[in-house]
């Protein structure tokens, strides 16, 4: 099956790839969203990365642009966040409660694309996302962070900025995704990453 889809793996005790969404055993809400959006079959990166991610294991996935990498890391991430207590956005400063996850992207455009895909699932699941990128008002982003969120999607430089200015703490963050990490390093963000 892996040969049919050109999937190469390294490591021990790797779970078998998904053959279909139906055998994935996701929560019904996630399966319903996949159906509603119209994703027919998992792509090769999704077939292998999702079962690994669902085991909360580290993974490095390499695939072409447009191959479905974002969904490959989002489904395990959202499945995990569903099991966590909601961030209380009614406290005086909810920013000290979250986020549970940070997704780093090299550019504002990619961060916004990830936000769009995340919101397709996150909004119906009640999972809040805040994008923290340059070129947009830091104060507005800080205001949204203080309201609380479960996921922060950020570029490295702006993430460092909001951390240094105490708009955000990462005390509860236990899930980190680095989308296009090689590109972030090539762009000079190695220190920030």
TrEMBL record:
GO MF terms here are: ATP binding; hydrolase activity; nucleic acid binding; RNA helicase activity
Indicate the segments forming the DEAD-box RNA helicase Q domain, all copies. 19-47
Which PROSITE patterns does the entry mention? DEAD_ATP_HELICASE (PS00039), HELICASE_ATP_BIND_1 (PS51192), Q_MOTIF (PS51195)
Residue ranges for motif Q motif?
19-47
Q: Which Gene3D superfamilies match?
A: P-loop containing nucleotide triphosphate hydrolases
| Enzyme Commission number(s) | 3.6.4.13
| GO annotation (BP), single | regulation of gene expression
Q: Where is the Helicase ATP-binding domain?
A: 50-193
User: Which CDD domains does the entry mention?
Assistant: DEADc_DDX23 (cd17945)
Keywords in alphabetical order, please.
Answer: ATP-binding, Helicase, Hydrolase, Nucleotide-binding
Q: List the protein's name.
A: RNA helicase
The lineage, from the top, is: Eukaryota, Metazoa, Ecdysozoa, Arthropoda, Hexapoda
């Amino acid at each position: 099956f892996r040969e049919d889809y050109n999937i190469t793996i390294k490591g021990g005790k790797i779970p078998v790839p998904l053959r279909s969404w139906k055998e994935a055993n996701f929560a019904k809400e996630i399966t319903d969203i996949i159906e509603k959006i119209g994703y027919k079959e998992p792509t090769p990166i999704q077939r292998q990365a999702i079962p690994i991610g669902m085991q909360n294991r580290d993974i490095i996935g390499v695939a072409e642009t447009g191959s479905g990498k974002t969904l490959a890391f989002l489904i395990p991430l959202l499945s995990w966040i569903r099991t966590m207590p909601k961030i209380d956005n009614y406290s005086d400063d909810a920013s000290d409660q979250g986020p549970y996850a940070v997704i780093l992207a090299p550019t504002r455009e990619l961060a916004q694309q990830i936000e769009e895909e995340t919101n397709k699932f996150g909004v119906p699941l009640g999972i809040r996302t805040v994008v923290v990128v340059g070129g947009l008002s830091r104060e507005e982003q800080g205001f949204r962070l203080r309201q609380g969120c479960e996921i922060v999607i950020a570029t490295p430089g702006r993430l460092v900025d909001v951390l240094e200015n105490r708009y955000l703490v990462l005390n509860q963050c236990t899930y980190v995704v680095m989308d296009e990490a090689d590109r972030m390093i090539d762009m000079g963000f190695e220190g920030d990453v």
